[in-house]
Amino acid sequence: MAVRGRFWFALWLLAVLGALWAVAARTTAGLRLARALDETRQHRLQLEGRKSAALRRLGTAQSRATLVPRAEGLGLRLPADSEIVILPAPGAVK
After folding, report:
1. How far does the chain reach from its first CA to its final CA, in angstroms?
2. Is the pLDDT of residue 94 over 70?
3. Which of 5 and 30 is assigned the larger pLDDT?
4. 32 pLDDT band (50/70/90 cuts)?
5. Is 91 left (phi over 0), alpha (psi -120 to 50) or beta?
6. What is the DSSP letter of 92?
7. What is the mean pLDDT of the chain?
8. What is the per-residue pLDDT across 61-83, written as a single tens digit (0 to 9) for each?
9. Residue-wise over 67-84: b if at least 16 C-beta within 10 A, else e?
10. How far, in whole angstroms, is CA 5 from its chain's centroid?
């Protein structure tokens, strides 16, 4: 039984359609991945903004301008220079 031209045409047509389907599938997957990457970058930027805001609030809370009035409200005071004792760390060489 000889293979006719219609068979070869159908075979090549299926091969071309398969290749086109593979290209479309890869393109769609690439677009989905790019969209997910963009969302991840946006989320990262939001988290970095929240981190910097938290660091700013922490710096403000640790500042002397904030701590001294709170300490005075609790009945505490700043020590004089003669009252400060610096203790060496254990094992420190002088």
Report:
1. 102
2. no
3. 30
4. very high
5. left
6. -
7. 92
8. 999 999 999 999 999 988 888 88
9. eeeeeeeeeeeeeeeeee
10. 59
70 within 8 A of 78, measured Cβ to Cβ: no
**DSSP label at residue 74:** T
Give the number of domains in the chain: 1
Spatial separation of the C-alpha atoms in residues 11 and 90, rounded to whole Å: 83
* Residue 43 belongs to domain spanning: 21-74
SS (H, E, C) 20-70: HHHHHHHHHHHHHHHHHHHHHHHHHHHHHHHHHHHHHHHHHHHCHHHHHHH
Tokens of 69: 């009035």
pLDDT at 3 over 80: no
Q: Does residue 58 lie within any of the structural domains? A: yes
Locate 87 and state its tokens: 């203790």
At which residue do the structure tokens 């997957």 appear?
A: 29
Tokens 């071309």 belong to residue: 16
Any domain includes 66:
yes
Instruction: State if pTM tops 0.90.
Output: no
